Amino acid sequence: MTQATTETERSVKAAFEGLEGGDRGGPGTPASEAWGAFLRAHASLMRVLDSELVRGAELSLSDFDVLIQLRLADGARLRMSELARRALISRSGMTRRAGQLEERGLVARQPDASDRRSVVLTLTDDGAQVLRRALPVHFSGVHAHFLDRLTDDELSQLRDVLEKVVIDCDFG
Amino acid sequence: MTQATTETERSVKAAFEGLEGGDRGGPGTPASEAWGAFLRAHASLMRVLDSELVRGAELSLSDFDVLIQLRLADGARLRMSELARRALISRSGMTRRAGQLEERGLVARQPDASDRRSVVLTLTDDGAQVLRRALPVHFSGVHAHFLDRLTDDELSQLRDVLEKVVIDCDFG
DNA sequence: GGTCGTTTGTTGTAATCGCAACCATATGGG
DNA sequence: CCCATATGGTTGCGATTACAACAAACGACC
């Protein structure tokens, strides 16, 4: 995977000439290399972290996301839409994920008194316990593959740079 | 829309609450903020870029990935496995994606004379033409949402930092 | 030549996800 | 009060993906 980078970026040059692209963003530039690293980093990190979490805590990264977002919310309760927004998934995706988690007894659906359209999701005791067991697994993975490889300065740089390219858009 | 998100990419904004992992990695630190920005940036960028590409060139980002990797390869020809590796997808995923692209006449399957197990994918004239029309669409999107928002220094930083966290792993 | 382990591509299967459509509810103006 | 519009959640549906298992072919070795 790392090797492909070099190869790719070398040949990118030939492929993109004739394209109006210009210098910035052209092949072999920091731009294209940054883009490629961005894609590779995400793909490989997500795969490994999910795999580790499933093996170590019998929880997918998607499920973990919902549980952790619930736990971080005030009172460990959130409406479906808000939860979907925070977990970066669609509302329909949230519906199905909540259904699975509810079947496992990790979350509970409750009607919202102030808005009868809404459904409020809460973390059950079992859910909190499962989350407690999953946290160190995920934590050690993020440490090993992410935090331990970067300095504090690099993390700050990464945060600042990436926040500039976040697009505010709907997710479903 | 076509699925811009590959696997599991969710927001885990501050996944380390309640852990005594020390300050590094705790909520509100550059670590967790960088991680959250990483996830949000990828999710939103992929969604928007895929959407723009589908609307502007009738090509999903996944299909584009295959075509561009073929184009960048020497002679615009690659074995399935190598193509899958470069496109960050599994071999089975590559099989099916190649099947679709072949049906559309954008790529052609050829036997590899030197290894009868292998199948070599080549870019057809139609495929090259579709790719030519797709390139400016994708590049303008990458420019608008990524490159134009960052300086050269920031792109170099991003590349250097992200390459440190790329994990060399199999994708299928 | 024969054998074992590896690699290559494909397929069955199951899981996931988003979009569009839908109903229920809420909200703001006539 | 009534209607138009917007929002919240669910469901049907199609599309995509990875994992595991498989056969064919390769390669190293004896």
Task: Please explain how this structure is put together.
- Two copies of one chain form a homodimer.
- By secondary structure, chain A is mainly α.
- The first copy, chain A, is built from seven helices and three strands; from the N terminus they run H-H-H-E-H-H-E-E-H-H.
- The first copy, chain A, has helices at residues 2-16, 30-57, 61-72, 80-87, 91-103, 125-145, 152-165, and strands at residues 77-79, 107-111, 119-123.
- The first copy, chain A, has a three-stranded antiparallel β-sheet with strand order 1-3-2.
- In chain A, helix 2 (30-57) crosses helix 6 (125-145).
- The longest helix of chain A has 28 residues, at 30-57.
- The two termini of chain A are 32 Å apart.
- The relative contact order of chain A is 0.11.
- Residues 1-21 of chain A have low confidence and may be disordered.
- Chain B binds a DNA duplex (30 and 30 nucleotides) through helix 4.
